[in-house]
Design goal:
CATH architecture of the largest domain: 3-Layer(aba) Sandwich
Strand order of the largest sheet: 2-3-4-1-5
Pfam families: AAA_16 (PF13191)
GO molecular function, one term: DNA replication origin binding
Largest sheet: 5 strands, parallel
InterPro entries: AAA_16 (IPR041664), ORC4 (IPR016527), P-loop_NTPase (IPR027417)
Number of domains: 3
CATH topology of the largest domain: Rossmann fold
Helix content: 40-55%
Protein name: Putative AAA superfamily ATPase, Cdc6-related protein
Structural class: alpha/beta
CATH superfamily of the largest domain: P-loop containing nucleotide triphosphate hydrolases
Number of helices: 21
């Protein structure tokens, strides 16, 4: 996938750099840091309250021995990791400056994408037990028990597990992990992150019963508005995504001015949000204040114009990834820089369409994320079956395409035959055991019927 790479000066070479006559050259020092990812997106996704919540939970554990669990949920790139890092940094500064000599908590952090439960247990033991030797092999159950015991009795601990949804298949481990919050001797602040909105409902009921948590949503202000009864959920979700992308672009390109600023020639200069790397930025001259207003007003006018709606709708139907949105915004900004007069709707649309066409967003991945649990298991079964049979009948792309588009009715009979061929053994969406050459697919009838409602018509008729 290609990306627009923005060098520090905001240019893309001789061909695409802003001309010296461009009226917006002065915006570079104020806009580029946001496009280069150096700003905490506080205004973008309303992280002020979320930051306060996470920090208070960490301080509660360190100062008062209060245990708690946070589930931080949001799209990739929406600020979950930044939120945690900033909360830890602020809490640590407060603890260090506190005269009560509070004990700093142990910080144990892992990403479930790259660390399996056993490796996580080893990391916990290494952090909390100086005598633990990770090179010595220990039985799985012994390592798990030791890690849980250390978490319960190890003093103030902040345990951070990102992408916790990758442990969904490890129900027993999650049960023990979540059960820690119910121990009387624990002093732990557990912080989990996930991109999966149905993470909790995907947990087995036994595990859900031990998962007591407070939800922190990094996209709450923009994309999770209350859904009125009787409204089309899919349509409302799509509109919320359009609103999110519109606000994303607007906040990244708007030059922030404090509310207290009267915009007079003798007033202090406008300031931007705190820069993560504390880089020094030039300040706007007082004579530029009305240019700032003009720039912001032009952006507001463009982003609210009806002509932009179709472009934004097309983009969010292809990608829901904040990293790509950031690159898209960079392309739009550079296009504005090349405008002879001022930003325009045409320049916006041209830059947006050109970037999306050149980046080839992964529609397959988007379709896969939209599948139900049963559909994902069935898809995995099909791919595994074909791999075992050395068959080219199915590939990942055409199976996903058949599920997501409804085209390719010729696959329907083949899918049905695979299901009849007993390729998976599932009970309530879990693999029970593998047989020598065939895996049985056993899904309760109510689930089959509910599952079939989400399939394309060409496949649904087979149920």
């Amino acid at each position: 996938m290609s990306h627009v790479r923005v060098p520090p000066d905001g240019s893309l070479g001789d061909e695409s750099s802003g001309s010296p006559e461009s009226p917006f050259i002065w915006t570079r020092p104020y806009v580029l840091p946001r496009l280069l990812g150096t700003y905490i997106p506080e205004k973008l996704i309303g992280l002020e309250q979320q930051l306060k919540t996470v920090k208070l939970h960490i301080l509660g554990t360190a100062r008062h021995g209060i245990s708690s669990t946070l589930l931080i949920r949001g799209l990739r790139g929406s600020g979950k990791t930044q939120l945690i890092g900033l909360a830890i940094a602020q809490a640590t500064r407060e603890l260090n400056s506190d005269s009560n000599n509070n004990t700093l908590p142990y910080i144990i952090q892992a990403d479930a994408i790259s660390v399996d439960p056993l490796q996580l247990c080893s990391r916990i033991c290494s952090a909390l037990d100086e005598g633990f030797d990770p090179k010595k092999r220990a039985a799985r159950h012994l390592l798990l028990e030791k890690a849980m015991e250390l978490l319960v009795n190890g003093g103030p601990i902040v345990l951070i597990i990102e992408n916790i949804d990758n442990y969904l298949a490890s129900g027993s481990f999650l049960y023990k992990l979540f059960d820690l919050c119910h121990s009387e001797t624990r002093t732990i602040c557990a912080i989990y992150t996930t991109r999966v909105y149905k993470f909790v409902s995907s947990l087995p009921m036994r595990v859900q019963s031990r998962f007591t948590y407070e939800l922190v949503d990094t996209m709450q202000n923009l994309s999770l508005a209350p859904i009125p009864t009787g409204h089309n959920l899919k349509e409302l979700a799509h509109k919320a995504s359009i609103s999110f992308l519109r606000q994303f672009i607007l906040d990244r390109l708007t030059i922030a001015i404090p509310d207290s600023h009267p915009l007079s020639a003798g007033s202090p200069e406008p300031t931007l949000k705190k820069v993560v790397d504390k880089q020094s930025l030039l300040s706007i001259e007082s004579s530029k204040l009305f240019d700032v207003i003009a720039w912001n007003d032009a952006l507001e006018e463009i982003l609210r114009s009806p002509e932009i709606e179709d472009t934004l709708s097309w983009i969010v139907s292809l990608i829901r990834d904040c990293y790509l949105y950031l690159q898209l915004t960079s392309a739009i900004y550079l296009s504005f820089m090349r405008c002879p007069k001022k930003p325009s709707v045409d320049a916006f649309n041209h830059a947006a369409v050109l970037y999306i066409q050149s980046s080839h967003p992964d529609q397959q991945a988007q379709a896969l994320e939209g599948l139900s649990n049963e559909a994902c298991y069935l898809l995995g079964a099909i791919i595994d079956y074909c791999r075992c049979q050395n068959s080219l009948m199915f590939t990942l792309s055409n199976v996903i395409s058949a599920f997501s588009s409804g085209k390719g009715a010729h696959l329907s009979t083949q899918m049905y035959q695979l299901m009849q061929a007993s390729i998976f053994e599932l009970i309530d969406g879990k693999i029970v055991f593998k047989r020598q050459s065939s895996w049985r697919l056993v899904v309760p009838i109510p689930k089959i019927l509910e599952f079939s409602k989400r399939l394309p018509e060409s496949i649904r008729i087979l149920f």
